[in-house]
Design goal:
The complex is a heterodimer of chains A (499) and B (434). Chain A is an all-alpha fold. Chain A has 19 helices and 2 strands. Chain A is 75% helix and 1% strand. Chain B has 434 residues and is mainly alpha-helical. Chain B folds into 2 domains: 134 residues, no CATH class; 221 residues, MetI-like fold. In chain B, α2 packs across α19 and α16 packs antiparallel against α19. Chain B is extended, with a radius of gyration of 32 Å. Classes of the chains: A mainly alpha (499), B mainly alpha (434). At the A-B interface, α8, α9, α11, α12 and α13 of A face α2, α11, α12, α13 and α14 of B.
């Protein structure tokens, strides 16, 4: 009974990790106790006792868990490759979509099987219908579509995976035990446990610092790959030069018309809404920054700054809801009242609504970034100007702001890149209809809205309807990257000026 | 310098326009006031509109009724011992409706009245009664006191959310229903109670039975993942870059990279999640694991940047002293520098966590917009998050959902406030220890 429970724990990945961790702690305490005993006898060891414990712990944990991780990934890939060779593609014809469909059906089956497979594999199963019946009794609903040849593939896949997993578990435990033996036997006076532990820690620090780079590489490469496969299906001119957006629904074959994916209306909408937002955010943000930095008493500053920071801490979805429920209807009713009748010339979802609310959201960014930059301007510049008889506002306008200008430009660039990448406000307040207009009272749509539209719902990875989201995302990434790099460059230059 | 030439100085009038300049000064100050005033106005408008619409969501109108569990309705042919399906498929809503009709004195043949009564009770009432009967079949035939949720429209009307002065045709609730509602309220069987359902229920198409249960669990899982991964990795990265890395091209590249990542639009991280975690690694869509990993990548740069500046602020004398008494570099960093940098790291972590908790866009892309009726048990199960649930409710057309959405936003803002308060308190404690 206990053994059975133990076997069950061993089969789940988290169970193995916990067992290895327990082994590790046990190893730590055993080595620690041994080192302590040696020290108690009066001999001086190279390192403090807990370093010997830590070294044993690392020897137990690190190799075994690394092995487990890569073994599991490797065995998944291996079994999948092997199963693929058995799929009779001839049955499906030459259409690449069919192949993917078969693959995803089989993968689905495999993902559903293991939980119920303990006695499942003993049954002689060779038709899809019987598999479906048996699983159906256990409350697992399977697709009606499915071919008989899939069943042996699935069963071989599952059983192969199970065997590989079992081997992996055994090797993991063996590695952990070897680690313990080595670590425990190395708990000796002359062994330099501290240096070894520190070397491992340093290695860990180095590895984690490359993760930031890896993230960027992952972003760029994944988007680049998908974008390239998008442009295989859709010509460049269709994306960059067309003003029409009509992606159609995903179709199985490519020989029909593929739809239109014009970037221009989306880009114009994005930039227009960002422009309107900046129109609100820049004056309000700059003036409040000037006020808090130059005029406000320390006590007023202590009240005003946290208030604006609250505005910055509110999630964007809340702003979106505010725009949808309050600002949009308010502007619509206001315009109707101005016209004196029922004709509202401002739509509830419009560039103005989205821009206004986004402007509110951006105000604290502008003000806090500019505040930092204005306060960084040296006191001596102000004193010189005030000493010559200029008023405070003249000093600010003629001396402080020009000195802070590059920094403020950088701050505005960073804010603008945020406005371009903002999603939730525009999803809720700007509308989804593609519209190329200059009227701020009408609804327009943005790049981010279309990314969300194309990727919510059912995903199918090879249709241009899905892939276009990556092309749009790439555009967005490049656009904001350029702005950020330029802004950071200015900031760096500017920092050197007064240091 | 043209303006200091002699002729210019001679022609300079004695009057240096002092009055005008002071007026300009005043005007300039006024702009500052106005800007701050506008900011504060929008903050109050936003919070006020959400709190005034949402605070009622924490109360739910309920009706307590004596329901007669009539055998003639539940099991007219008395076959329930042989066929367990009978008890499952019995017509429970009718029992509740009849109980209500009896209480209000409505004739059984008043079909319009009965239909209006049906609308006063949430459809979840029948399910509740069924569960009660299935748990204990002995009670069939007796009369039980049952508390059920009122229908969404009655709930809104009782909270004063529906304008009752407009004509009967243009509102969702009839005059008779209003009369009944007040009658029941006067008898004490219809009342407002604390809305535990808001925190417990999963997704539902009806406002009164939909709640934040799945979203709260999903958000909790994801925050846990973010904390577990991004804090150690972020601090480790910052330590390496700040204390060990030599200044060279490679570390420069890492630095530029991190600064850029902090400014990449969040939706791009969603695209990364779709193509790397879901498509390449084959992790399940809309699981909290994928959501947590995506949010981790977003939070990392924030924590790294905050930790680096906190490490930089630790005085060099501390390091020298530690190294001077014979500590190794690792001991110096972990036992002396890091504890002093802890308040700064904490602040950065909290900023990152609150951003992760409120983030919506990347989660939409990895499929967390889903109608999920079951609690997620593991990290691999489909889940949703608090902001995503807000987004889904914001798109619902029924009016009662506006109240729920505002209530959910209040919950979210409260969580953010609590996290920030805890951080402030912890920070103070850390600083006292110095």
């Amino acid at each position: 009974m206990l053994l059975l429970f133990f076997m069950k724990v061993c089969m789940s990945v988290s169970g193995i990790i916990i067992i290895v961790l327990v082994l590790g702690f046990a190893g730590f305490f055993l080595s620690y106790a041994r080192a302590c005993a040696i020290v108690m006898q009066g001999t001086k060891m190279h390192s403090r006792p807990h370093y010997y414990g830590l070294w044993t712990f690392l020897l137990i944990i690190v190799p075994s868990l690394f092995f487990l991780f890569f073994w599991n990934i490797g065995s998944n890939i291996y079994t999948e490759r092997r199963a693929l060779t058995h799929i009779p593609y001839a049955a499906a014809g030459d259409i690449i979509h069919q192949h993917n469909l078969i693959l995803s059906t089989i993968r689905n089956l495999v993902n559903r099987l293991p939980k119920h497979s303990s006695n499942m594999l003993n049954h002689q199963l060779n038709s899809y219908a019987s598999l479906r019946d048996i699983l159906g009794q256990k409350g697992v609903v399977l697709d009606v579509q499915g071919k008989n040849y899939m069943v042996p593939i699935v069963i071989e896949w599952v059983s192969g995976l199970k065997k590989l997993r079992q081997t992996g578990v055994i090797i993991t435990f063996v590695l952990a035990i070897i680690g313990f033996l080595v670590g425990f036997s190395e708990t000796k006076v002359k062994k330099r446990a501290r240096n070894r532990v520190e070397r491992v820690i340093l290695l860990g620090l180095l590895v984690s610092s490359t993760l930031a780079i890896l993230t960027t590489i992952a972003i760029v490469s994944s988007m680049l790959l998908q974008t390239i496969s998008f442009f295989r299906a859709v010509p460049l001119s269709n994306f960059f030069l067309s003003t029409a957006w009509n992606p159609r629904f995903s179709v199985m074959t490519f020989d029909e018309s593929i739809g239109e994916f014009g970037l221009i209306p989306l880009l114009v909408g994005t930039l227009y809404i960002a422009f309107v937002a900046m129109l609100f955010a820049v004056p309000i943000g700059l003036f409040s920054a000037v006020y808090t930095a130059e005029y406000a008493t320390p006590r007023a500053r202590d009240v005003i700054k946290p208030m604006l920071e609250i505005l910055a801490g509110i999630p964007t979805i809340v702003y979106g809801f505010f725009a949808l429920i309050v600002v949009g209807p308010f502007l619509r009713d206001l315009s109707a009242a101005i016209m004196g009748g029922n004709h509202a010339f401002i739509m509830a979802q419009s560039v103005l609504t989205a821009g206004l609310v986004m402007g509110i959201m951006l105000t604290p960014f502008v003000s806090s970034l500019s505040d930092d930059i204005i306060t960084a301007v040296p006191r001596s510049l102000r004193d010189g100007s005030l000493g010559l008889g200029a008023t405070q506002s003249e000093t600010i306008k003629r001396v402080v702001l020009p000195a802070a200008l590059p920094g403020i430009v950088a701050a505005l660039l960073l804010t603008a890149s945020r406005a371009i990448g903002e999603t939730m406000i525009v999803v809720l307040a700007a509308g989804v209809t593609v519209n190329l207009t200059l009227n701020p009272f009408e609804a327009m749509t943005t790049i981010t809205v279309k990314i969300v539209n194309q990727l919510t719902g059912d995903l199918e990875f090879n249709s241009p309807q899905t892939l276009v989201a990556f092309a749009l995302g790439m555009t967005l990434f490049v656009l904001t990257l350029l702005m950020n790099v330029f802004a950071l460059y200015i900031v760096r230059k500017y920092q050197e000026r007064y240091e | 310098m043209n303006c200091f030439s002699k002729s210019y100085l001679k022609s300079l009038p004695r009057d240096i326009r002092l009055k005008q300049r002071y007026r300009a000064e005043k005007r300039f100050r006024a702009y500052g006031y106005t800007a701050i005033g506008i900011g504060v106005f929008f903050l109050t408008a936003l919070l006020w509109s959400i709190f005034s619409q949402g605070y009622t969501a924490f109360w739910q109108t309920s009706i307590t009724l004596p329901v007669k569990l009539d055998v003639a309705v539940i099991d007219p042919q008395n076959r329930r011992d042989k066929n367990p399906q009978i008890l499952i498929t019995a017509n429970y809503p009718v029992l509740i409706r009849n109980a209500l009709a009896e209480k209000l004195g409505i004739a059984i043949d008043d079909y319009i009245g009965l239909r209006e009564l049906n609308h006063m009770i949430s459809p979840s009432a029948g399910i509740k009664l069924r569960k009660m009967v299935l748990d204990n079949p002995q009670i069939i035939g007796s009369t039980q006191s049952l508390t059920v949720l009122a229908g969404a429209d009655i709930d809104s009307a009782f909270k004063g959310k529906i304008n009752l002065t407009v004509s009967e045709i243009s509102r969702k609730i009839s005059n008779r229903q209003i009369k009944w509602m007040y009658k029941l309220a006067a008898e004490g069987s219809l009342y407002k109670a604390f809305n535990t359902g808001l925190f417990i229920f999963a997704s539902s198409s009806r406002p009164e039975t939909s709640g934040l249960g799945v979203a709260l669990i999903g958000s909790f899982y994801m925050i846990l993942i973010v904390l577990m991964f991004s804090l150690p990795i972020g601090v480790a990265t910052a330590i390496y870059l700040e204390e060990y890395a030599r200044k060279n091209r490679f570390t420069d590249l890492i630095e530029i990279n991190i600064n850029n990542l902090a400014a990449v639009p969040s939706i791009v991280f969603g695209l990364l999640g779709v193509s790397v975690f879901i498509n390449f690694f084959g992790l399940p869509r809309s699981s909290s694991l994928v959501g947590g990993l995506v949010l981790t990548l977003m939070t990392l740069p924030i924590i790294i940047i905050a930790t680096r500046s906190a490490l930089r602020a630790v005085p060099i004398s501390i390091r020298s002293a530690a190294l001077g008494v014979g500590a190794s570099k690792i001991q110096m960093v972990f036992q002396h520098v890091l504890p002093l940098a802890a308040p700064g790291i904490l602040t950065g972590t909290v900023i990152g966590l609150t951003r992760a908790l409120g983030e919506t866009a990347p989660l939409l892309l990895i499929g967390m917009v889903a109608f999920i009726a079951n609690y997620p048990r593991t990290l691999m199960d489909p889940a949703t998050a608090l902001p995503v649930q807000i987004y889904m409710w914001a798109n619902e057309s029924e009016r009662a959902f506006i109240e729920r959405t505002s209530g959910a936003i209040i919950v979210l803002l409260m969580f953010l406030a609590v996290i920030n308060t805890i951080a402030v308190l912890l920070r103070r404690r850390f600083e006292q220890h110095r």
